[in-house]
Amino acid sequence: MKRRSFLQFGQQDQKRQIASASATFTTTDLDPYTGPWSTAEAAFLLRRTTFGPTPSQIKQAVADGLSATIGQLFANQPLPDPPVYYDYENDPNVGLGETWVNTPLPNPNPAGSFGARSRSLLSWQMGLMMNGGVSIREKLFLCWHNHFALTTNNAQFGYHYLNILRTHAAGSFRAMVEEVTVTPAMLRYLNGHENSRQAPNENYARELLELFTVGRGDVAAPGDYTNYTEDDVVQMARALTGWRGVTDDTGIPAGVFVPSRHDEGEKQLSHRFGNAVIANAGDQEYKVVIDLILQQNEVARFLCRQLHIWFVSADIDAVVEANIIDPMAQIMIDNDYEIQPALEALLGSNYFFEAAHRGCMVTHPLDFIFKINNTLKMSSDANLLNQYRFWNQLRRLAEGLEMEILEPPSVAGWKAFYQAPQYYNVWINSVSLPLRQEAGDRLLSGYTLGGARWQLNLLDFIAEMDNNLDPNSMLEQVALYLFAYPMADNQRDFLKEVLIPGLPDFEWTVEYADYLQNPDDPDLRDAILTKLTSLFSTLFKMPEFHLI
How far is the C-alpha of 237 from the C-alpha of 197, rounded, in Å? Predict the structure, then answer.
């Protein structure tokens, strides 16, 4: 099926559901949500803010209420333990199962060491998404990774950069952009490492303005983009000179300031920055630059648009700009660029829960993978090193679907979050759709790695459905947890035919009841699993499954 017809099929069903919904909201403000709080609303919130919420997590959110659930999403938690070697034993300084993040590689580097550290880091990150629980941190981390997009093959630099994003994910944008500016991964990626008074390099200064903070704006005049000018790029590049991305003597990645490489002259900015003059401030001058940029209110609006695209939709018209983006931006400004207050206001609003926002996004590959892996409770009793092996398999699936951590396609991030008018629809095409279907079947078949078995727990998932003896009710419940909107009658009937082809409803009731009474009977168990495997293989291929 072509992308257009595939997506239209799913979105037509969505529109029918929205049109028949008993309670919809047409508000365009940030007033606190006052509508129903049920499985549908809790599932929508958790799908947008976490990776693959389980039925039990959604049920707990319903019981806790919206306010408490948002509180849990933003609850502080310690940083995770660092990644370890899981399949490499040739590093003389770090053993199997030990972390390498603060240990430089020996010189010469042992064969395979760079690849081993990269696999460890990227597998570790997949594990964090798999085990993130009811916390927005990993979704926000990915949002900021897309925002401050970079690539690096140095795993120590990559870990340092990822830790910055995770540390400040819901906290201070000011602190985050300051640390990103002088982290070795970014200094190397956008040539800050080469930026000196003798040979100024404008790459980072340009992206700092255009992509990371204030945005370009409309062209007002030659070299003037409304929010900054070409000369501002030149002057800010001079102010950012002198930094080098290195691994220090203790083995920890660091941005190091070299005074002799810094331009100590005055930097004259344009009228876009009030004709400000940046005087020499040595190793603190980059903070002066960032402070001047953050004094522009457009920065907060630019960031809030990005959060809206990530968590709500890409549809931002003049009304949304005035009634959603501007108030969010003011909250952010009033809180000195703290991210949490503005995002909490958005996620807890009537506007966020508008029916039109449900199913308006195509799942990105990581959401697609974890919607299967997490919601259907992929599990194993494997030890830590074997868990890394499984996480690496998830990484390889994401790589095949063109969404790998530390490998965004450009400094602008993944196209789905900026390329109008397609936005999220770019994830589905004639190449990616078959690959998604293969990925779904691969997860459904499970993995055996290092003697351990990973398998989706379809029986446990179905056990959590209300009235699971009735195939109609059971399938409607499945849709609550896996689809963005209620299942239509024709969809339910289609799936029931997959589950019990040509048979009356009571056949499922009898067979499932027999299994419940004798769950240790392998024949009864296998018969139910065969039916469920066929059902979920079909579900994963439905257009609705790819919407969030």
Answer: 9
Residue-level pLDDT at 106: 87
Please report where in the chains the tokens 């990925």 appear, as a residue.
439
The continuous run of DSSP H or E covering 461 comes out as helix 458-463
Distance CA 227, CA 391 (A): 43
Question: How many domains is the chain built from?
Answer: 1
Whether 243 maps to a domain, the answer reads no
Which of the 8 DSSP states describes residue 284?
Answer: G
Contact 348, 25 (CB under 8 A): no
Q: Are 304 and 328 in contact (CB under 8 A)?
A: yes
CA dist 414 → 63, 402, 419 (Å): 36, 9, 9
Contact 393, 447 (CB under 8 A): yes
Which residues have a Cβ under 8 Å from the Cβ of 472 and sit 6 or more positions away? 492, 496, 505
Q: Which two tokens stand for residue 504?
A: 């009356």
Find the domain containing 473 and state its range: 458-546
Contact 25, 350 (CB under 8 A): yes
Which pLDDT tens digit goes with each residue over 160-187?
A: 999 999 999 999 999 999 999 999 999 9
Residues 348 and 33 sit within 8 Å (Cβ to Cβ):
yes
User: Does residue 350 register a pLDDT over 90?
Assistant: yes
DSSP conformation class of 247: E
CB 32 within 8 A of CB 348: yes
Coil, strand, or helix at residue 112? coil
For residue 122, the surrounding DSSP H or E stretch is helix 113-130
Q: Which helix (H) or strand (E) holds 123?
A: helix 113-130
Residue 8: pLDDT band by 50, 70, 90 thresholds? low
Residue 492 falls inside a structural domain? yes
Is residue 316 assigned to a domain? Answer: no
Q: Is the bond into 200 cis (omega within 30 degrees of 0)?
A: no
CA distance 310 to 146: 10
Within a domain: residue 371?
no
Give the other-Cβ count within 10 Å of 302's Cβ.
Answer: 21
Is the pTM higher than 0.85? The answer reads yes
